[in-house]
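Lab notebook page, bench 4
Experiment: in silico fold of construct C2
Operator: M.H.
Input chain length: 819 residues
Purpose: comparison with the prior construct
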Amino acid sequence: MLKPIYTISRIAEILNADAKLIDEQAFIQYLVIDSRSVLVPENSLFFALASHRNGHEFIPDAYHRGIRNFVITEEKYLSEYPDCNFIIVNDVLEALQKLATAHRNHFNLKTIGITGSNGKTIVKEWLYQLLAADYNIVRSPKSFNSQIGVPLSVWQIDVDHDLGIFEAGISAVDEMETLADIIRPEIGILTNIREAHAEGFNSKKEKLVEKLKLFKAADLLIYSPEYVSDISFKDLPGKKHFSWSTSQAADLRIIAVEPIEGNCYLQAIYQDREIECMLPFKDKASIENGMICWATLLALGYSPEQADQRLEKLSHVSMRLELKNGINQCSIIDDSYSADISSLAIALDFLNQQNQHPKKTVILSELFETGRDDLDLYTEIADLLAQKKVSRLIGIGPHISKYGELFKFETQFFDNTNAFVDAFPGLQFSHETVLVKGARRFDFGRISKLLTQKIHDTVLEIDLNAMVGNLQFYRSKIKPGVKIMAMVKAFSYGSGSFEIANLLQFHKVDYLAVAYADEGIALRKAGITLPIMVMSPEESAFEALIKYRLEPEIYSLEILNSFLNALSDYEFDYPIHIKIDSGMHRLGFDSDEIEKLLLLLSDSQRLNVKSIFSHLVASGEAEHDGFTQQQIEKFSLIASQLIAALGYKPLLHIANTSGISRWPNNQMDMVRLGIGLYGFDAALTNNRGLQTVMTLKTTVTQVKNLKAGETVGYSRRGVMPYGGKIATVKIGYADGYNRAFGNGVGKMLINGQLVPTIGSICMDMTMLDITGIDVKPGDEAIVFNQDHTIMQLAEDVGTIPYEILTNISQRVKRVYFYE
């Protein structure tokens, strides 16, 4: 079967849409939904999707980047860009899905569809590893499984593919049937059904029924009875079924699960005989996902012996990019587990988000199993790297080295990883951002270790995708046109500085706010160009503040006069922000100072009031709603007086995180989003709808068995009257783990079990009572995550999440994950 050729006119026919076409034969190869993610602009079609932001707003940026083909709903752009092709539709998302469906229907390849609550992406990647020897596989990039991600995944299908593996995720009812029509899975795999992502469903059963719609026309369904207990067997889709279970009768009945030196031995009954396999993992989630893969291989007709042979060779899958501090002031993006065109494009987009260093280096292995001619493949990669303005390429492998002349910028090539490692002492890496991306067989983990600063065994992991999800959550709550000021003071609540600011700038927040000028200066030096408000400007820092074009909060007549004195006679319309005290009584102008404030402002042409704002005291607490209303009314009155005197209208803002949620009618011109970005909002029950952004983890240093009556720690405060076992972990009060957590108040998760502290918290270490639990040195101890939450820690010691987060020491290394 020939690959379909898509001209813009052919796509208009498929969509049955009106079109204004300047060049009917424009060839379309790439579908683009993000104006910042453009590979080959002349062959790209931009879909102006309406989600949290109106995609039409980004048409100018897409045009600037060279795109001339668009799918839109707003016809005003026809006259604004007369040299472009436009397809006009009623619903852009529906058009994207319709095009993907038509593309899928052109092929008869075998297709596996995967859905569930957890494990979809890992199962997909492991099946790719297990089946790649027998099939040329196309699969979802990373975790592209949404209403947008599935069409983009299916669009990758080419004539050379004979197996597709696609995952589908939903967040509400009536979403799955569309994805089922796009994927058309012949084989269905159901992973577990848990409470994750359940906000859009009334019950677990409703979520299960909706997810099973993916398999409405499947020939084969692979599942566990434990996952589908809420419905009857007759309601299961699929012409044939293959079941697996650890607790009840099934086609694959697993009867033994035994950890063996970091691996896991499985024994099962299959077709009335005992079979076995070895998984090279020991954690619970990996074992469960491995069982699903085992069942899938058997259901597809592989022998137990073939399945065992392949499963024991499974490799770790990292679905997230890691951003770390590197040697010689470098930033290292570690994506050393996989290399293909789709994930390379994603990694390069993340590389381009980083503004802290002008030089950008890519260390890339050659790509395997693409089914493409090498010249064609590396020509596309060279064009892609050039499009993303990569400064230097270090290519590893004989194939990429052979086509080195295609790369028209600084390059170095090595035949293998060993050759790179041998040459490393003579290579120069300094003040640059380095993307390390390699196919699994190249063992690029060795390269990442060479480039990365030694990581303290206590690590704060920051999930950037979760932060973006929280940003979009609040965007969905604010009214059109309302701007967002993101609070990045106090090292972004302990999570980092330029790393978080880069992310927020990339996702187009309107303002940043820091506490002190030096925080803003650091962001400017790291390439942040967004407007930055400084909330506590100091007179001694005014000169530097002006030099770096930071915008001070003006909260008193004294600070206003001082700032005016610091401005040169040639400085006009310098941006400032006026703070009104509406009831916090911390900083801000009181009502009786407004007249003097107006006199100073009206006499000076050197100032431009960018915003007038105030701070709500208790916006998240219903018991204080009366006071909050008083604050809003007082602020509105004073702001109106200032606007009348100024003769122009600055931005008005009073709503903080909880104010966005509970006071939607008082969003004014801008809202200030702070702790909500990190997953906490006092106005939301159990932070419903928000994602956990940070995980603090450490490691076990030593395990000791103690006799009855022995004591633990300073002043012998930890007592074990009956003896037992303790573990020492590498975190203490110097890392920000408060001494109040000592003597059983604090708890940590080890191997899925919550264990209490024992004795006093030391400066660098903490002891845990692990009596009765299998723990060994090197095991991970979770201080907080999505299960053992910061909220719980704060309650345990009578404080708030802010304090827990901001107390985490700078010696605790931050690692940023991005999917």
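Observations: The longest helix spans residues 625-646. The two ends are 34 Å apart (CA to CA).
Next step: discuss at group meeting.
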